[in-house]
């Protein structure tokens, strides 16, 4: 899908508002309007939410992306959307390791470095002690990801174009990383994106900075289509007023992550005896990772249930660790979902509240025509006891991160509507 011009986006944002009014007639209620209008930036529009078109898929690309205009005059860059990290960074036009973008797609700093003595610089360091030889030194950063990937660079500040749902535009100055040393894990040497859009809870995240400037309320959400694409939104105008399952975020040591729990694992509506799971929502992860005990429970129950079906293990498919083949190649998820039972996470402190995972939320169909399990053993890849809910399990759900009331919500829906505009 090609990147659309801003004129097209302006039309789309207007249609977005009308379309959501039709889908969720109670969404735009008074209860969803800003509670503290006096604290808002005078540059902010009356409708303080912004929507971005998402592209990508779980398989075969392995990521969902948005495009942002940075600088003035603006230049377009594509970012992997990541609710599991804080820092936004883009590949830098500097001597660079791990950079695959051509020179005209790299970001070039222009006397806009963030200084080491700024509070925002402290926000990107684990230790509150900043190593500054002088207050005017540049703010260096290093961010490491759970999959052992990393980015090293310097913090800069530049204009980023933000278009509200009513069509008005602001260009706030936002701090982000200019990365010149990237490391990637997995079979691919580097992703095709220019960088990562950090949507986490830390003070340096894209969301937190927009909120601190008074431009949006402290909400971010996404809807990732199982068919590919979807949308990302900032602010609260697009939150359905009913039907959303809300679970409080955990006040744990992982305070910058979006984590909820404790949860029990269910298979086909039945208890698996796996409980007390803490779940981290991470849109930067293609697949879902469970600790060894929970992972083995899934594998055992799915495998035992399939004994009644005419499916065999496809040991020659390298796409994922566990795959199955039918009597003939599968063409889509609709061909395989009748063979598999649903999974769910039931929240132990919230009666009747579940995160439902139908087969299409934990399976992919590969180019070889096999069905593969998109839930992996997190302990085996170094995540220890962490449980990561990745893109595959977040598909076709509006997922909302409410940082004001510190809760996460979701509701199943069709995320394909933006393609039709």
From TrEMBL:
Residues 64-411 form the Peptidase A1 domain. This is Peptidase A1 domain-containing protein. It holds the Pfam family TAXi_C. PANTHER family: ASPARTYL PROTEASES, EUKARYOTIC ASPARTYL PROTEASE FAMILY PROTEIN. The lineage of its organism: Eukaryota, Viridiplantae, Streptophyta, Embryophyta, Tracheophyta. Keywords: Signal. InterPro entries: Aspartic_peptidase_A1, Nucellin, PEPTIDASE_A1, Peptidase_aspartic_dom_sf, TAXi_C, TAXi_N. Residues 1-29 form the signal peptide. CDD domains: nucellin_like. Belongs to the peptidase A1 family.
